[in-house]
């Protein structure tokens, strides 16, 4: 399976639009579209962001064997059990404000995904240092 197909499957599994994924990763929607259609491949920095966001290894996107399946929602749910309690409280907080302005539900979900991706990225970096 191509890198683009894996990205698309992961994105669709999380019920994200290309724009939502792009916003979460800090890239353009056009970049996501080009990756998914295999017009271009993401660079290393983007692979790292994708890996962190989707909770998969960076090698996941490059391997073609059947052992490297798209993670199931249950796998993702199991990882959520490992989140620290403070992060869970933050993600479940009813209201967010940015610069004193209440954040709408759509932006709240984006913020939650960004915070979660940052957490997993930091956790992975710390694991590599040991």
| Class by alpha and beta content | mainly alpha
The shape is: globular
Mean pLDDT: 75
* CATH architectural designation of the largest domain: Orthogonal Bundle
Tell me about the largest β-sheet.
Answer: 2 strands, antiparallel
**Terminal-residue CA separation:** 32 Å
Strand percentage = under 5%
Helix content: 55-70%
The first-level CATH class name of the largest domain: Mainly Alpha
Radius of gyration: 15 Å
Order of helices and strands: HHHHHHEEH
Walk me through the structure.
- The protein has 130 residues and is mainly α.
- It folds into 2 domains: 3-73, lambda repressor-like DNA-binding domains (434 Repressor (Amino-terminal Domain)); 76-129, no CATH class.
- It has helices spanning 3-13, 18-25, 29-36, 44-54, 73-80, 85-92, 105-129; strands spanning 97-98, 101-102.
- Strands 1-2 form a two-stranded antiparallel ribbon.
- A hairpin with a 2-residue loop joins strand 1 and strand 2 (101-102).
- Helix 1 (3-13) crosses helix 3.
- The longest helix is centred in the last third of the chain and has 25 residues, at 105-129.
- The protein starts with a helix and ends with a helix.
- 15% of the residues are buried.
């Amino acid at each position: 399976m191509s890198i683009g197909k894996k990205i698309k499957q992961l994105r669709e599994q999380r019920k994200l639009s290309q724009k939502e994924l792009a916003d979460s990763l800090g890239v353009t929607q056009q970049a996501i579209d080009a990756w998914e259609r295999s017009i271009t491949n993401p660079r290393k920095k983007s692979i790292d962001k994708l890996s962190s966001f989707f909770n998969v290894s960076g090698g996941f996107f490059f391997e073609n064997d059947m052992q490297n399946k798209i993670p199931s929602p249950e796998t993702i749910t199991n990882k959520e059990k490992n989140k620290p309690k403070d992060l869970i409280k933050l993600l479940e907080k009813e209201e967010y404000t940015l610069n004193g302005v209440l954040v709408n539900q759509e932006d709240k979900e984006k913020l939650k995904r960004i915070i979660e991706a940052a957490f997993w990225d930091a956790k992975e970096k710390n694991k590599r240092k040991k």
